[in-house]
Design a protein that fits this description.
It contains 5 helices and 14 strands. It is an alpha+beta fold. The chain has 2 domains: about 5-110, Alpha-Beta Plaits, CATH 3.30.70; about 120-215, TATA-Binding Protein (2-Layer Sandwich), CATH 3.30.310.
């Protein structure tokens, strides 16, 4: 790969993968973040981001962390994406395909997400009574709850995540229940239980929809 090609890869957040991804699998994963993601030639367009077709990349792109590397670059379509959606796409994709993320020349491993967890997005802020079957309120903070060793916090959901677009026509106060804990499967199980009980949407930290608790476990 020539010098200019390397430079282009660094102009947007990039998922760097150990193998060339199957196009259908790539689209399936991206549709977890944006159900309306679609093919556009060899690329995929998700919301306001163009996900460029995978290209073989030099090992130097990840500082030699990956012997073989396939780069999937995120390019903004028009103005800069809202709420770092391009970066979230790169990191979420890298997590699911056992890769690394490169943003502004900095390499990160999304699997090293200690301190982060999933969330449940709701079209309106739930009441304490609605949360009571699964979460116990904290006396000193009306927005904080616990479930065993899992902490939960109610926060306004910033922006409008494409994964939650089904809520947008009637959402009154898009809200997220953010979960924190040390065991991904337990976190995922609670997120799915909350989404089922409250008619919400369970997502990972990058706002990709999760369908099983194991979706939060890094691939082997």
């Amino acid at each position: 790969m020539g010098w200019m090609a390397k430079r282009r890869l660094r102009t947007g957040p990039t998922a760097v993968l150990p193998a060339k991804p199957d196009p259908d699998e790539l689209l399936r994963i991206l549709q977890l973040a944006d159900p309306s993601a679609r093919r556009d030639g060899d690329d995929i367009v998700a919301s306001d981001v163009r996900v460029c077709a995978p290209v073989e990349a030099p090992a130097e792109l990840t500082g030699g962390e990956l012997e073989q590397a396939w780069a999937v670059r995120m390019a903004a379509e028009g103005p800069l994406p809202l709420n770092f959606f391009d970066r979230y796409l790169a990191e979420g994709l890298a997590f699911r395909l056992n890769g690394l993320a490169v943003t502004r020349g900095e390499v990160s491993d999304p699997a090293d997400g200690e301190g982060y967890g999933p969330a449940v997005i709701l079209p309106a802020r739930p009441t304490a009574e609605e949360l009571a079957p699964l979460l116990e309120p904290q006396e000193d903070d009306e927005f904080a709850f616990v479930a065993g060793d899992i902490k939960a916090v109610l926060v306004p959901e910033k922006g409008q995540p494409p994964a939650a677009q089904e809520f947008l026509p009637f959402a009154t106060e898009l809200t997220a229940i953010e979960l924190r804990g040390d065991e991904p499967v337990k976190l995922g199980t609670l997120a799915l239980e909350l989404s089922e009980a409250l008619n919400g949407l369970a997502v990972d930290r990058w706002r990709f929809r999760i369908d099983a608790a194991e979706d939060l476990v890094p691939p082997a």
